[in-house]
Write a structure and sequence with these properties.
Layout (H helix, E strand, L loop, with lengths): L3 E10 L2 E11 L4 E5 L6 H9 L6 E6 L2 E5 L2 E2 L7 E4 L11 H6 L9 H7 L16 H13 L5 E5 L7 H17 L3 E6 L2 H7 L2 E6 L2 E6 L1 H6 L4 H6 L4 E8 L2 E4 L2 E4 L7 E7 L4 E4 L3 E10 L3 E8 L5 E7 L9 E6 L4 E3 L5
Parallel strand pairs: 3-9, 3-10, 7-8, 8-9
Antiparallel strand pairs: 1-2, 1-4, 4-5, 5-6, 10-11, 12-13, 12-15, 13-14, 15-21, 16-20, 17-18, 17-20, 18-19
Pfam families: ABC_tran, TOBE_2
InterPro entries: AAA+_ATPase, ABC_SmlMolc_Importer, ABC_transporter-like_ATP-bd, ABC_transporter-like_CS, ABC_transpr_FbpC, Mo/tungstate-bd_C_term_dom, P-loop_NTPase, Transp-assoc_OB_typ2
GO molecular function, one term: ATP binding
Length: about 350
């Protein structure tokens, strides 16, 4: 059975174009993170898929069933889609069991089974939302969304109100539950680490369009442009002269994938690819930001005055003013050069 297919979906609010001919396809059982800055159209797209908003144009189908045609769609309650909003939105006057069972009509429904699915102890079922932690509330909200056995689950920044440690723990628990239920899901987030760690694929949204859809590894290592590259992590972008599979840059020669036209271009590497030592291009340490497990080091290249940033282990951090050598490990990604 096919998954979610979105074709040419557009939406404006007055004169503001929020979604501009969005195309997106998600296979069954896949978890996709919609990543992007505020105002990029992520939540609007989610609400159109759910049926809370009408599109101005475009079509959406789920499992081969048409949800939206020409911008208009079937009512939300007939779409077979679960929705987890930002704050969970549990009913405060209902206990956990009643929240999860709300709207479920099938016989033999087991609340304990749903709680175990989201890594919560069944003993919590008699508690009320205000008696739960933020992470527990979000897991209950997911259990409620999964209870009717939906074809898809939509999550709108469900971890944004949690502190850093709880976000990681809750995110992993939610993804385990989605995989155990073999659910297809979209996770809206503006957190790059969350998107890369939790999703099978990441759709980077920018100016109302999907700028790139790729696996986390491909997105990080081969972004389509500098803007996408900068949104999914720190970058070092170098001017380069391309010849074959070699890019000549101020940091020396860097290996690049085959199939790029010769000429001038920009080459992208990540800060962790810069190795500091005694060999390589000469540089002076201008600034250090120490984070414990690692540190970022800003350096000025002696010969070109170019400023670059390296990420180094927290056990091997140079001091401001130190003279070091920089070499590159791994390959670079070429920006601004069309494939042959």
């Amino acid at each position: 059975m096919s998954g979610l297919k979105i074709r040419g979906v557009s939406k404006s609010f007055g004169d503001q174009l929020v979604l501009d001919q969005v195309d997106l396809e998600i296979p069954n059982g896949s978890i996709v993170a919609a990543l992007g800055p505020s105002g990029g159209g992520k939540t609007t797209l989610l609400r159109i898929i759910a049926g809370f908003l009408d599109a101005d144009a475009g079509s959406i189908s789920l499992g081969g069933t048409s949800l939206v045609t020409g911008g208009r769609g079937i009512p939300p309650q007939h779409r077979g889609i679960g929705y987890v909003p930002q704050e969970g939105a549990l009913f405060p006057h209902l206990n956990v069991a009643a929240n999860i069972a709300f709207g479920v009509r099938r016989r033999g429904f087991d609340v304990d089974e749903m709680l175990e699915l989201v890594d919560l102890d069944p003993s919590l079922k008699r508690r009320f939302p205000h008696e739960l932690s933020g992470g527990q509330q979000q897991r209950v909200a997911l259990a409620r969304a999964l209870a009717p056995r939906p074809s898809m689950v939509l999550m709108d920044e469900p971890f944004s109100s949690l502190d850093a440690g709880l976000r990681v723990e809750t995110g992993k628990a939610v993804i385990r539950a989605l995989r155990a239920a073999d659910a297809t899901a979209i996770l809206v987030t503006h957190d790059q680490d969350e998107a890369l760690a939790l999703a099978d694929q990441v759709a980077v949204m920018r100016d109302g369009r999907v700028a790139q859809l790729a696996s986390p590894e491909e997105l990080y290592r081969a972004p389509v442009d500098a803007a996408v590259a900068g949104f999914v992590g720190s970058v070092v972008i170098l001017p380069a002269a391309i010849s074959g599979q070699v890019a000549s840059t101020p940091l020396g020669d860097i290996s690049i994938p085959a199939g790029t036209s010769s000429g001038t271009a920009q080459v992208l590497v990540r800060p962790e690819q810069l190795v500091l030592g005694t060999a390589g291009v000469r540089a002076i340490v201008e600034d250090v930001s120490f984070f414990g497990h690692d540190a970022t080091v800003r350096l000025i290249l002696v010969d070109s005055a170019l400023t670059v940033e390296a990420r180094v282990p927290g056990t091997d951090v140079p001091a401001v003013g130190d003279a070091v050598g920089i070499s590159i490990r791994g390959t670079g990604s070429v920006l601004g050069a069309a494939p042959q």
